[in-house]
Design goal:
Helix 4 (111-138) runs antiparallel to helix 5 (141-167). This protein has helices at 3-29, 33-59, 74-102, 111-138, 141-167, 175-203, 209-220, 255-273, 289-302, 332-345; strands at 227-235, 241-250, 276-284, 313-317, 324-328, 350-357. Helices cover 63% and strands 13% of the residues. A hairpin with a 5-residue loop joins strand 1 and strand 2 (241-250). It is of the alpha/beta class and 360 residues long. It is built from 10 helices and 6 strands. A 6-stranded mixed β-sheet has the order 3-2-1-6-5-4, with helices on one face.
Length: 360
């Protein structure tokens, strides 16, 4: 981070620390659980900024002997820790807030509390506008996250002001209890959502449809490529993402021709999508009478599973030791349901699920 970035990073740290301290003092002074809960919401904003900075600093470290694929998942670890803590604290606050609904405390609202909340709304609104404008220029996800989080705090503050104002007129409605429940649910929900999302990132996600279509578009610019399969997305953190897949080329191409082709594709994918890319080449057999008969027998066999054989396309890889056949035109679930049967019936071959074919 440069000095200017450090300055903007320090700003939400400072404001959240000040807001937390002020709200906590007034919350304890006036025995307002809703203000204490909102103070805890601010301290989580403060902690998340610190954890993000730590995770970001670790994740951009270069690969080393012990971490050959980099340190990118450090950001996921810090996010998972934060989300778990938020969920636990939010649920604890909820347990403390529910009794206030049934036993409201009269006269807990004070002008000082309204002033503190109003000041918080103005500060968070300023942060939102600042980081929204910065995100439009930098496109940094961290700045977008700060902007959206600040906007959420603005809405919470407005609801609190409306609730405190209403409590002056109808104290029997237990407004503070309901507000406390609302904020504790928001804290717990944000924690659960963050933990679940991060867990999915760590366990692995499929490649987005946008990126998948982008890769297919790049491949289609090379007419010699006849298909692709086994597309896999490897996520090692926000700054270290890989894709790997197989492309099908005519077996007549030389090693040099194949190498130059995949090298060009890998560079385009890296430049356009910021993915590191690994491509495996499968040489396709030329059509023969033997293959034609084999493919016809396979389609006939698949007909017993009530599959539309007219949509099925089969290709043979020019492989001597482990003959492989690529099957197109089935959904992934359909292919998995018949794969074992195919390999039991046609014992000589291994069957591969085909993602997309560029000719039929």
């Amino acid at each position: 981070m440069n000095k200017k970035t450090n300055l903007f990073f320090f700003l939400p740290l400072l404001t959240n620390a000040v807001l937390f301290s002020v709200k906590l003092v007034f919350g304890i002074l006036f025995q307002s659980l809703v203000l204490i809960s909102d103070a805890i919401n601010n301290v989580f904003d403060w902690i998340s900024s610190i954890l993000f900075a730590i995770g970001n600093k670790v994740s951009i470290k270069k690969p080393d002997e012990n971490h050959p694929l980099g340190h990118g998942r450090a950001e996921y670890v810090t996010a998972l820790i934060l989300g778990t803590i938020m969920a636990m604290v939010g649920l604890q606050l909820l347990l403390e807030a529910i009794p206030l609904i049934f036993s409201p405390k009269n006269g807990t609202s004070q002008p000082f509390i309204l002033f503190v909340v109003a000041l918080s709304v103005l500060v968070k609104l300023a942060l939102y506008l600042l980081f929204r404008s910065r995100f439009k220029v930098s496109k940094r996800i961290s700045e977008k996250a700060i902007a959206l989080d600040s906007l959420g705090d603005v809405f919470i503050g407005i609801i609190m002001i409306a609730g405190f104002a209403l409590e002056f007129y109808v104290p029997q409605w237990a407004i503070e209890g309901w507000l406390s429940v609302l904020i504790s649910i928001i804290i717990a929900w944000n924690g659960i959502r963050l933990a679940v999302k991060t867990s999915k990132d760590m366990l692995g996600r499929p490649l987005s449809e946008t990126h998948r279509e982008g890769i297919i578009g790049i491949l289609k610019t090379h007419p010699v490529i006849q298909g692709m399969h086994s597309l896999v997305y490897h996520d090692y953190g926000p700054y270290h993402q890989h894709v790997s897949f197989h492309i099908e080329l005519p077996s007549r191409l030389s090693l040099v021709e194949s190498h130059n082709l995949i090298d060009d594709i890998e560079q385009k994918i890296s430049q356009e999508m910021a993915f590191e890319c690994l491509i495996h080449v499968d040489p396709l057999q030329e059509p023969t009478d033997k293959n034609h008969l084999l493919f016809k027998n396979i389609k006939t066999h698949l007909h017993q599973f009530n599959l539309n054989s007219s949509t099925i396309l089969i290709k043979a890889i020019d492989e001597v030791l482990h003959p492989e056949l690529i099957v197109y035109g089935l959904s992934f679930e359909q292919f998995k349901s018949v794969k074992d049967d195919l390999e039991e019936t046609f014992k000589e071959y291994q069957f591969i699920y085909g993602d997309i074919s560029f000719y039929s």
